[in-house]
Amino acid sequence: MYMHHRQITAAHFITVLLEVQDEYSITKSLQECGGDVYELKKALSNILIKLPASSEVYVVDELASAPQLKRAALRALEIAHKDKKKTIGLEHLILAIFEEKNLRTMLEQVGCNVKIFLEHATTMYENKQKDAATKRADKKKTNTADPGVANSKTESSDEEFVMSFGVDMTALAEQGKLEPVVGRNKEIREVIMVLSRKGKGNPCLVGEPGVGKTAVVEGLAQRLIEGMVPKALENKTLFAVDLGALIAGATYRGEFEKRMKALIRYAVGSEGRVILFIDEIHMLMGAGKSDGTMDAANLLKPPMARGELRIVGATTQEEYKIIEKDAALERRLKPILVEEPATTRAIYILKKLREKFETHHDMRISDEAIVAAVMLSHKYIKNRRLPDKAIDLLDEAAAAKRVKWDLRTLEDDDEAALEKKEKEQAAKEHREAMKQDEQRIKGQNHGDGTEEQLKKIEKDMEKEALEEERELVLTADDVAVVISVWTGIPAAKLTDDEKSKILRLSDVLHSRVIGQEDAVKAVADAMVRARAGLNREDMPVGSFLFLGPTGVGKTELAKALAAEMFHSEKNLVRIDMSEFSESHTVARLIGSPPGYVGHDAGGQLTEAVRRRPHSVVLFDEIEKGHPQILNIMLQLLDEGRLTDGKGVLVDFTNCVIILTSNVGAQYIISAYEQGEKDTKSALATFDPKSGSLEHFAEVTKGAEAAGGDDTDVDSGKKDKKATILDKNKKSGNWKKEARRKVLSEIAGSGLLRPEVINRFSGVILFEPMKSSDIKKVLAIQAKDLKQALSKKGIELLIDASAEEFIVQRAYTHKFGARPLKRFIDNNIGAKIAPWLLSGYLQSGMRVKVVASKRSKNTLEAHVCKLVNDKCDRGTRKARVLASVAKKDESSSDDPGR
């Protein structure tokens, strides 16, 4: 009967004891003391009915103990210690529980003599333990007396021969060498149920690596020792077979079969007392097989079919397919699925294991560290399973903190250690000074409290010292540091500096990507949202389609994002789509299918992201790739995952996905240029006497100049405001028109299907740059040359006239900013290089690039020596760098200068 109680009370405990009907039942003690069993059950039932109930059904492991039961457990521990017992028995619990006044009164009310009851119950349970110990001893004697293994001359050598091929797990459990098993009661019960069958009682645990298959078997071994199994499994031994030891050294024909048959005879000859556990049971298929011989699986099938041999196996879901190929073996096994526990269950498991880790690492592990270990491993480590990955993470975090703490005294040259020593020295000097003052004041004014004050200060300082030496505490931040080391993902709690950096991301990106406000804002907003924890966990951090002409900053924005938010441009996974122009080249991205060359090598994309799960993935110039390849974007953009050629799921949820394309660039350029023509500069006349605009007009295509005879100042201001709004409206109109045409071009060409486009976080148009933006880009492009000359002690300056000269001759909307770099290299860097080699340019000189005032299309270099950071006029010389005419319509298709 389920009563849905939240706590286990002493009443629950006594009720369960009364339900047990065997030779050691507590009802016999009640009868001995003269008590009425029915009345006691009725009294307990009345207590249980009054307890608060919940709508949920709790698993036993999740229930809390009532305070009264906790007190009884602690008292039972004291009684067991007095009796010099290693474990708490039922007799100790019964003695402790009935020390409670209300429970003693209950026994007396049903007519029981409490003293007689406790004496009889204690004696009865002590006898039960003695009987169990005698049975275990008899079992061991019987096992050693069995002939068992062939070719063994003595009883001791029989057991020794078999023990060399495995380990007795029940013996390990009896010695307390197995870890406590938590949260796997369901699976353990299923294993016990299958083992209790008359025939084919061979459970096989199937689950992903790390979910706890071996832990289930360890839990079974512990239950066998504790007697918490049905009668069919009482006095059983669980023997873990080491297949590696069985095969190792079996070089001669028949030697492996000999060992295997000996193991089988040992288990069968025990008359069912020995249960074999075979981890990685799929390895039986073909194990020890050579020409004309049988493998291990075929040797095991006959005794398994007859029910003479019971086996517990464990394997993964993928490797269980190997067993399924052998129908004869597969039908003799009963698969039991061991699923990955939920995060709440994993937290509960780690809390139960906490004491073991605290003892080993000699530190306290906080609840927040356990929660962080589970949640962070679940979020960022996708190729492993709970609870194994959370246990490993918690273990390593504790080890890292302990090692760092233990080595701190050896790091004398460490800045923190030196700072600590300085503080200790200052404190010591402070104490000495206070003692001297106290001695001086003591002679002048007795009873002023100086001595008491000094003692108080010394006590406070001693308390601080003890506080420092007190136990270490593992925190969530310690766990986050380890997860960051494992994955490269900044999972640690954001510091104030990091928060400031993220909030300033838009400004930082603007410094590298000029003139693309919409694109930078969209990317920066996505990153801020992700670091604030507001994005969906099953999608990439952001996914963008960048559309625009060449040389406007599409690729540069991806590089800038990788450098600023992912710590390095090395975290940019760049896929050049020109290398994937054929449909079959998709295998290079995700890996070749089975049976093809390179299947084990993995894919260019999937392997890169597996190594760097926190990165920017850039698919550059997608129009050059085959459209069929882009179909993989569906699951990548929607669910943040991709299955490679080996069937392994690769996680992209910590990546930013960016696709770039030049498709429709001509529409963007055309619309931009048309917009420039449509919105021309304002015309105005300024009256210096009144200091106001007397006439303001806007000339637009296909319209007359606005304005009239009205020269009122307020009217002029209204016209000006209307004109600015009109400009903004026209600016937005050309973008909308360009966007419509570009997306229509993409859909018409079949480059990206609508369902793919619909999955992007943003489809962003990069517009051609304005003249003011081009000059900023020019300064960035010239930075490399300036830095190279600076290392040689030479200063390079490019003045405003030279900037205007270069922009007019190197920049076009069609080719973007890339020709600027080419112009600098060809017309400045290439001309300066011979001057360096010839010695004309030396350290301590300045080169100022200017547009010539004498020759219209000439760029000059003014060279001089620097004296106190100023140019020495006596050394100034002018040299021609380049003669380049302005671009005209005929040269608009020529990107190089």
TrEMBL record:
Residues 1-127 form the Clp R domain. It comes from the Eukaryota. One of its GO terms (cellular component) is cytoplasm. SMART domains: AAA, ClpB_D2-small. GO terms for biological process: cellular response to heat. Transmembrane segments: none annotated. The keyword Repeat applies. This is ATPase, AAA family protein. It comes from Besnoitia besnoiti.
